[in-house]
Structure formats: structure tokens, C-alpha cells
Amino acid sequence: MPNQSIGAEKSRVIVIGAGIGGLTTGALLARRGYDVLMLDAAIVPGGCASTFKRRGFTFDVGATQVAGLEKGGIHHRIFTELDIDLPPATPCDPACAVYLPGESAPINVWRDPQKWRQERQKQFPGSEPFWKLLANLFQASWEFQGRDPVLPPRSMWDLLQLAKAVRPSTFITIPYTLFTVGDALRLCGLGGDRRLRTFLDLQLKLYSQVNAEETALLYAATALGVSQEPQGLYHLQGSMQVLSDRLAATLERDGGKLLMRHTVESIGVDGGKATGVVIRNQKTGEVWTETADHIVANVTAQDLVRLLGDKAPVGYKKRVSNLPTASGAFVVYLGVDASAIPSDCPPHLQFMYDADGPIGENNSLFVSVSHPGDGRAPEGKATIIASSFVDTEPWWQMNDYEGMKRRYTEDGISRLAQFFHLTPETIIHQEAATPLTFARFTARNRGIVGGIGQRLSTFGPFGFANRTPINGLWLVGDSTHPGEGTAGVSYSALTVVRQIDNS
Ligand SMILES: Cc1cc2nc3c(=O)[nH]c(=O)nc-3n(C[C@H](O)[C@H](O)[C@H](O)COP(=O)(O)OP(=O)(O)OC[C@H]3O[C@@H](n4cnc5c(N)ncnc54)[C@H](O)[C@@H]3O)c2cc1C
Question: Ligand 1 centroid vs 176 CA: distance in angstroms?
């Protein structure tokens, strides 16, 4: 039950950032009776899950597929509490078609569990013990996460929530807490199966930022398990923006205020307690301070330290600066004639290439393709969005930034042309985003995207907590448990809301 009793003065909460994490936090708090002020530096809300329009096309900036829309899924739960409808969506089936180097037929990650079992038995003979282990761990982890544990715990209340989420079935996960996917492959006698390893490296990098050797097994079990029924990955009708727009409208319906093009420049701290924020209105240049009972930062852990300046606790600052280097993204956005798209093209594809080239350190592309009538392209046209992981630093050090961007774009398009019919006649619009673009439009430190990675050292009990060492200051978003993605950051938001409600 909310702590805001009728007649009592509402606690004031400032939310820095209107990404899915911030919007979900703000909308839930406003619904529960808090006085919410949300500030975002960008022009439209949604952060990495927002969109932009060009020549009749609507492009999803980053996120293109959503988990957690099914009954009981995290977006479903949150939209139910907010008493609003979920945006219409279609399940992705296959969730992804994965093309390994030199192969012309894909590995289809089907939504139907039976069909996916048959596919993987055909593709990776002898690997069933590994998949069975994953399925068992997924079942237990999914049920555990559904009981809203607080991870990592930082107070007695957090610890109690964690204890309450544990059931006898949870214990089967405990021996695997310190296992990586690489360890599990070796345990199942599959350490030398290079094809399976390549497939897992590709898929896991999308969710965990790191390859199979480094990804925490319990995280992988969930990330790989959500593609199948009764869960699933979904393609939103309209665009990704509908998710943010509905949350923003709900925030305002319930009395919250969202100010776009307002940047938070610093967070004030006094006596170990967060007191307020310094805000700059980008249009007028006006700078002022707002105070609040709670401040929720929907930013990266690195940006939180920057906003705290010399008020950042030494240990926290050190922990953040010791984090392994995070990835950036290079993304090519194409508006094309529908004739560029092969018939029966799945909504999501992943390609890995043999030859070396500039398109990202693991030489792969994750591709999302619009459907006729899904709101992203005019009739007879389509969008293709292809992203790859990149090291951010060369982009900041580069003298010839435009030249590097052009080379990456050309290389990306020439690789996509091995599958799509891409010619000067079929490409109507093209543009690209680099780490500098993400830094500028999503205000993320150095343009890093996708959170802090799900290695053993940064996963679950060892990850970044929503509760910071500063009283009344909360971190929400993909730097915190349970990691990246719109579903992950929504869990993170729900946790912060429950913590504030019980503080
Ligand atoms: C290329 C790419 C593809 C992806 N694909 C998928 C996918 O298919 N499915 C999926 O679920 N996830 C995907 N993701 C990940 C997903 O988009 C993110 O994990 C998630 O959207 C992050 O949400 P967030 O709320 O944590 O932060 P963000 O989206 O980064 O939002 C933070 C917001 O805070 C604002 N802000 C930051 N600092 C300040 C400040 N000082 N003052 C004011 N405002 C500030 C920013 O402008 C931004 O709007 C993808 C990401 C990328 C980059």
C-alpha cells in the first residue's frame, strides 16, 4: 500500500531523465500520489527507446523489440497498475533469424517451444543437456523475479523483500550463481562446440553486452528463455515511441509534470542526503535549483557520479571508475522501397561475417525490419535498422569523424546488401548514429549504451543497486539490476517505486 495517506502533503520526487526507466518510475509514483517533476534533456521522451521521423519514415532510435507485454509480464503489470491499455503489438516469430558466417540458411529462434527444440536439435546436435539446464534455471529465476526481489539488497527492507521472494525451487539456481555460460557449456561436455558457441556469443552480446564465456549463466537463462511462449518478444504497432508516450501521458494525467529540453546539471547533497537538482532550460538558458524529498536518476552510473561531482562518495566513485569499458553502438537507419525486402523476411535478423571490416568489434549486425502497415513506413516502403557494437573511444579521438562515419555506413550497407536488395534506386533515405550521436541525443556518458554488462562481477547480487549510498537518491535504468532492455529497466523502476513507498 502507498505511504501517501489522503490529506497528507505529497512527498516531492524529481526524476532526472524520461527514458523508459524514468517514465515508468514517474508514472507509478504519480499514480501512487507523489508530486513528480520529471526533466529530460532531449526533445522527445523515451531515450534509447524513442524514435525520429524522416521523409515519411519513423525510425526506432535503439530498442526495436519489447519483452514483458504478455499477461504477468513487467510492462503488462505496470500498465495494469496505471490503468491504461498496453499498445498493440505482434509477437516476433521467429524472435530472431541468426545467420552464422558463411551460412545461407538461418538458425530460427522460434516462439513455439517445441519448434525451437526441434530447430536447436537440428542445428546443434547433442546440445540438449545444456538447453535443459537453461530451461530449469529460467523457470526458477523467472518465478523468483516475478515475486519482486530487491537485488542487490542495501537495507533491512530490501533484504526482507529478497527473502520473501525465495522458494524451495529457487535453491536450484544457487549452485550456478558463480557460473558463466562458458562454464555451463564445459559442464555439459560442449566446451568445444564452436558453432553453438558462436551462436550464443552473438545472441548473448545483444542482451548482456558480453560473450558466452563472460555472461553470467543465470542472466543468460532468462535472456534466452524469454523468446518462447508463454513469454515472447514483441514488435509494437506504430513505433517504440508509443510506449513512452503512454507513460508520459499517464504521468501528466496523475498530476506529474514533464519538462523536455531541461538538463539537470548537478545533484545537491547535504549531510549525506540528496536535497535537489540544478536545472538548465535549454531554450531560455535559465538556470535554477529545485528541491525534493527524493531524487531518482535515470542515467548511467557514470553520469550519476558526474552529476554528484565532489559529493560522490569515494567508494561509489571508485567502483564506477573500475567498471569494465562499456560498449557503444553504431546504427544505420535506412528508409527503402519495399522491393528491397525479401519475401517472408523475419522482423529481426542477426548476421555474423567472416571478413574483417570496420562494422563493430564482433563483426556482426542486428537488423530490424518494419512490416507493411506497422506504422513505420509509407505504403510500399519499409525501414531497415542495423546496429553493431563498437568501442566508443576511437569515435571521440578521431580527427576525421565524418570520414569514419561514412566508412562504417558504407561497410554496413554493403554487408546488408548481401541479404536485402539495396541499390541507389531502392534506398530512399539513409543516416547513421555513432557514440557521439547517442551522447548528444540520449545524454549517455561517452555514448555508452545498454547498461554495464552482465558479467559475474556486475550481475544480480553483485550489480549496482537502485539505492545509492546517498539518502533519498535513487538510480534507475539499465545500469541497475536486472540489466538492459525496456523490460529490465521497468523492473528497476518498479523496485525504486516500492523502495520510495516504504522509506
Ligand atoms: C542500438 C540499440 C538497440 C537496442 N535494442 C533493444 C531492443 O530491441 N529491445 C530492448 O528492450 N532494448 C534494446 N536496447 C536497450 C534499451 O533501449 C535500453 O536499455 C533502455 O531503453 C534504457 O532505458 P533507460 O531508461 O535506462 O535509459 P535511457 O533510454 O538512456 O534514457 C535516459 C533518459 O535520460 C535523459 N537524461 C540523461 N541525463 C540527463 C540529464 N542530466 N538531464 C536531463 N535528462 C537526462 C536522456 O535524455 C534520456 O531520455 C537497445 C539499445 C540500443 C542503443
Answer: 30
- The whole-model pTM stands at 0.96
65 lines ligand 1 (CB under 6 A): yes
* Whether the Cβ atoms of residue 59 and residue 53 lie closer than 8 Å to each other: yes
Burial class (CB in 10 A: 0-12, 13-18, 19+), 452: buried
Digit-by-digit pLDDT tens for the chain (503 residues) are 444 544 567 899 999 999 999 999 999 999 999 999 999 999 999 999 999 999 999 999 999 999 999 999 999 999 999 999 999 999 999 999 999 998 999 999 999 999 999 999 999 999 999 999 999 999 999 999 999 999 999 999 999 999 999 999 999 999 999 999 999 999 999 999 999 999 999 999 999 999 999 999 999 999 999 999 999 999 999 999 999 999 999 999 999 999 999 999 999 999 999 999 999 999 999 999 999 999 999 999 999 999 999 999 999 999 999 999 999 999 999 999 999 999 999 999 999 987 665 555 558 999 999 999 999 999 999 999 999 999 999 999 978 999 999 999 999 999 999 999 999 999 999 999 999 999 999 999 999 999 999 999 999 999 999 999 999 999 999 999 999 999 999 999 999 999 999 99
The HSE-up count of residue 151 (CA atoms within 13 Å, CB side) is 23
Residue whose Cα lies nearest atom 36 of ligand 1: it is 17
For residue 68, the number of C-alpha atoms closer than 13 Å in the C-beta half-sphere is 22
Pocket test for ligand 1, best of 298, 388, 392, 441 (most atoms within 8 A of CB): 298
In the reported structure, the alpha carbon of residue 8 is separated from the centroid of ligand 1 by a whole-number distance in angstroms of 34
What's the CA-to-centroid distance between 445 and ligand 1, angstroms? 12
User: Which SS3 state, helix, strand or coil, does residue 142 take?
Assistant: helix
Q: Which ligand 1 atom lies nearest to the CA of residue 449?
A: 53
Q: What is the enclosing helix (H) or strand (E) of 236?
A: strand 233-236
Tell whether ligand 1 has an atom less than 6 A from the beta carbon of residue 370: no
The DSSP code sequence of 164-209 is: HH--GGGGGGGGGTT-BHHHHHHHTT-TT-HHHHHHHHHHHHHHHS
Q: In order of start, what are the domains of the chain with their CATH numbers? A: 12-48+68-87+239-323+451-501 (3.50.50.60), 112-230 (no CATH), 327-445 (no CATH)
Q: How much distance in Å is there from the Cα of 313 to the middle of ligand 1?
A: 25
CA 58 to centroid of ligand 1, rounded, Å: 18
Q: What are the residues whose beta carbons fall under 8 Å from the beta carbon of 133, sequence distance 6 or more?
A: 184, 187, 188
